[in-house]
Amino acid sequence: MAEPQHAADPFAVRYPEPRIVAPGAPLGWLRRGLADARVAPLSSLFYGLVLAAMGWLLVRFAVDGAIGLALLTGFLLVGPLLATGLYAISRAIEQGGRPHFRRSLVAWRDNLTSFSFFGAILALLLAVWIRVSVVVVALFFDGPMPHAATLLRDVLAAPDGVWFLLAYAAAGFGFAMLVFSASVVSLPLLLDRPRCDTITAIVTSMRVLGANRGPLLLWAALIVLLTAIGFATWFIGLALLLPVVGHATWHAYRELVAPL
Questions:
Q1: In the prediction, which pLDDT does 174 show?
Q2: pLDDT above 90 for 154
Q3: What is the dihedral of CA 34, 38, 41, 46, to 10 degrees?
Q4: Which of 27, 62, 74, 75 is deepest in the core (most CB within 10 A)?
């Protein structure tokens, strides 16, 4: 006697499947990201200049050291959202077409609701991180925080400066890993699949990280290193390096998430 057939659950969510990548895969993503930047140099440079301008504004006008430090470290939170146009350019190159700069500027419109929701989540997380940053600073400094322009020098000269850096780094690492796990492939996924919602994208991103901890920790370290180089080179590095990271993120998504 045949067993009864069970109807599929209409409310079941089918998440995109993560794929396993090689430990050194992030280096390949960067190479392909650099190749995309060479195919569309002017468009890529535009996004790099926008990100560099944001970094410069944070340093130039962040008078309050505590909030300024939070904004500088929080720069990595909003960067992926601003790089959506770079993902669109890489997708166009991948498909063999000519990347259109104007189209890349409004690429988010195909999935407006999900992109808006994700942007709101990032804004909320940035606000929480600013509060956490201020609390950590208040634990180590009785008076006002050193000015942002001389932050590192003054912190190292302070009696508890090294302990402050360790505590701040620990808090920042935990928070950054939370955000990274939720966003490592979320935005390229929302761009590539307009019917995908924000929660599905975040869950998929977390599953991808769970399946590729080693390679993605290397990827996160490379992003932080390249961003730090960008700030250390008077923002010239931001304009040149962050577009490569943006393009590489698209290739990371392609390798980490199984196609439909």
A1: 86
A2: no
A3: -10
A4: 74
Residue 52 near residue 235 (C-beta atoms within 8 A): yes
Q: What is the pTM of this model?
A: 0.87
Residues 145, 65: Cα–Cα separation, whole Å: 5
Number of domains forming the structure of the chain:
1
Would residue 2 count as lying in a domain? Answer: no
Residue 123 in this model has a pLDDT that exceeds 70 = yes
Q: Is 3 exposed, middle or buried (0-12, 13-18, 19+ CB in 10 A)?
A: exposed
Note down the domain range covering 98. Answer: 25-256
| Structural domain contains residue 158 | yes
Greatest pairwise CA separation for the chain in angstroms = 81
pLDDT tens, 16-37?
999 999 999 999 999 999 999 9
> Within a domain: residue 239?
yes
The percentage of the chain sitting over the pLDDT mark of 90, rounded to a whole number, equals 52
Is the separation of the CB atoms in 195 and 6 below 8 Å? Answer: no
- The position carrying tokens 């993120």 is 249
Q: What is the CA radius of gyration of the chain?
A: 20
Q: Tell me the C-alpha distance between 205 and 201, whole Å.
A: 6
Distant-in-sequence, close-in-space partners of 48: CB < 8 Å, separation ≥ 6: 238, 239, 240, 241, 242, 243
Question: Is 223 within the bounds of a domain?
Answer: yes
Question: Tokens 């009785």 belong to which residue?
Answer: 142
Question: Rounded to whole angstroms, how far apart are CA atoms 152 and 196?
Answer: 42
Give the three-state DSSP class for 18: strand
